[in-house]
Every structure is written in C-alpha cells, then in structure tokens.
Amino acid sequence: MPNSEPPPRRKAANGEDSIYWDKSKNRYIGAISLGHEPNGTRRRPKVSGKTKTEVRSKLRQLRKELEVGVQPSAKHTVQRVVETWLDRGLRGRDERSLKTYRSLAKNHVIPDLGKAKITDLSPDEVDEWLAAKAEEVSHETLKRIRSILRRSIALAQRDGKVARNVAEFVELPQGREGRPSKSLSLEEAHAVLHAEQGTWIHAYVVLALLVGVRTEEERPLTWAHVHIDTDGDDRPYIDVWRSVRKQGETKTRKSKRSLTMPHHAAVVLTQYRQAQQAECAASGVEWSAERLVFGHADATQRSSTDVLRDLRSLLKSAGFSTPKAWTTRELRTSFVSLLSDHGTPIEVIARLVGHSGTATTETVYRKQIRPVITEGAEAMDEIFRQKRRN
To answer: Please, are residues 354 and 242 in contact by the beta-carbon 8 Å criterion?
Structure first.
C-alpha cells in the first residue's frame, strides 16, 4: 500500500519562499527564510490565507515591505502598535488628554482591531470599521479613534514595522450628532450672576460669563494675574497666561491674552479677594498674590469636577429646573452668544476668547446672531446695565 503521508518539506534556503498547509489553523502558510537573528533564532516572517493564490499575493507584498526596510513580525498586532503609541507617542501631554486617549483606545480600537496583524490590516477593513463606529459614536469621537489608529501606525512606520499607513487611505464617515452646546438667555444669565453671592463659585461664574475665560484657564489663575487695583484711566483686567495643561501652557498661542473686566466683574472679584484675605487672617495663614483665586481653603487647585458640582448647585439656587443639563463650558458659549446678540463683531469676540480665527467662534460657540456694533467689557457693562433698568 503506497505511503499516503506527504513528502517532508524541503527546508527553504535564505530568501526563498515556502507555502504549506497548516492543518491546525486550516489555512495555507507562506514564509520567507531570512537566516538567523544574532541570538540564533530563525528569521522567518509568515503570512497566511485560505488559498495558495492569496498567500502568494501576501508574500509578494511582504517582499516589497522587506525591500524598503520593514521588519514585519507576528507580534506586531494593532493592539501592540497602539499600546506602543500610548506609551511613547503622547509624551508631554497633560494627564487629562492621556486618560481620554487611553479610554478611547481601550474601548474602541483595541477590542475591534487589536488582534489583527498590522501588516495584514487593509484600507477596506479600516473603512468598514469606521462605518460601523459611525453608527455608535459622535463625529468628534470618531475623529479621535481614527487619529489613534493613524498615529499608532505612523509610529510603527517610523520604527520599520509596517510599510504603509492604511488609516491614511480612508475617508472619515459622518458620526452621530454629539450633545449640542447651548447658551444662557439674558434673563437666565442675570439670574446666574446674582445667585449664591459671596461664594467662590459665584465669583468664578461671574468671571467666566462676563470675560469668557476657559475653565482650564480659570482654575490655575492666581491673584498676581488679576489687576483690580488700577489707577487713572486703566480699567481692571486679568492676564490669561496659564492653564491646567501640561507645563501650564494655554490651549493655543492666541489663547495667551490680557482681558479687560466689566465693572460688575471687577466689583465681585474685589469683594471676593477681601473675603479670602479675611479668611486667611482668621486661620493664621499668610495671604499672597501667588495664591490661587479659586483654590481650596488649603490653597490647592480645584478639579473640573469640583467646579461642575458647585456650578450646578448655583444653577439650582438660580431657579434652573434641570441644572444637570448644563456644563461649565456653556458659560463660555453664553459669553460669546450674549456679545453676538448685542451686536459685537465676530472678529472681536474671536479675539476675546482666544480663537485663531472666527470659524470656531461662529459655528461652535455663537448661538444667537444679530448685526454688528461695539466690543468687549464695555458691551457687557451695557448689556447688564440695560437689564437692571428693565
């Protein structure tokens, strides 16, 4: 009876391809023999497919990658390159950004694509993945998770682990509509400005709503950057020079700015500073201009969660029926909308809020639109002076 066993495979010479059937995987395996590593292990990158034709095609692609210096490995999965990028590609970012990227990678990229070999991933697969994600997440989240994949593969490219970045070849579909931001009406803003007077959150809200400061810029603000003891014709102003971002940098170069305060904001901050100085004296703590304006009693910085919690408490005191429907950043959208509604030019508003152009100011922040007239702190004084007269 003839021997039914296939003849033993000839060992491939260096640089030679071999294709064989792997019964355990139920697939054809293609390999290129590239000699040995310095530690003695064989260099034998492999591909797999359902047919020999598919494997031959993958071997040709593998050879092209080897010719341009790519060193593919079965260990280089999407999960591995994403985790490498999270470790190496985000150095210098603030902790909040790190937390966001890690969460998005853990919840979206790695569960869906993590097991795929980075050299096998195709544009079509990425395209289908993004199309499915577009049904689940907002457009902004969709942009971020594609960015994670694209930047992770770019780092792998730089390291010679993959020849091309397949995430560069796909268009971003339209994700779900995110939660729309909103703006306080003039009546709501007036109620907010007079709720819980004398508290830190009242002073915080006054500055955010009447000057348009970002919450990340307001929390690290020190009294040295609040100029309310001005002489002559100078109006009170604040220097927005720092944020809670890594190394204290503001969001953009144009975000670093000095802003005149409306009269009401200057009065509230003067009274609040006096109260803070009195509290320090009563507790035997030396007050200095380097102290945080809105810090805890022990002079440590408040978190964004602290601010949001107390803001919603203030909104409840101001008569809002659904205070949890509001976020801290909507004080800033309200600043933009109130000025726009009053007739302040959009170019002026963009400069006040630290935007590099008017597009973001107009499409994201402005919720009410009327024709153009005056600017800045003078406009806020006029807005709320008119409200008091009515």
So the answer is: no
pTM value? 0.55
9 or 233, which is more confident: 233
84-88, 123-127, 320-324: least confidently modelled range: 123-127
Last-in-domain residue among 169, 204, 228: 169
Half-sphere exposure (Cβ direction) of 277: Cα atoms closer than 13 Å: 10
CA-to-CA separations, 206 to 42, 79, 108, 337, in angstroms, rounded = 69, 46, 39, 16
Residue 150 domain-assigned (yes or no): yes
% of the chain surpassing 90 pLDDT: 27
CATH of the domain at 252: 1.10.443.10
User: Which long-range contacts link 97-103 to residues 24+ away (Cβ below 8 Å)?
Assistant: 100/144, 101/144, 101/148
State yes or no: pLDDT of 362 exceeds 90. no
Active-site residues, by number, are 214, 251, 332, 355, 365
Cβ atoms of residues 99 and 93 within 8 Å: no
- Reduced to 3 states (helix: H, G, I; strand: E, B; else coil), residue 251 is coil
| Residue 339 to residue 377: CA distance in whole angstroms | 10
- The reported pLDDT for the residue numbered 373 is 29
Q: Are residues 342 and 242 in the same domain?
A: yes
Tell me the backbone φ, ψ of residue 34, rounded to 5 degrees: -120, 30
98 with 25, same domain: the answer is no
- Note the pLDDT tens digit of each residue in 161-203: 777 788 887 888 887 765 666 889 999 999 999 999 999 999 9
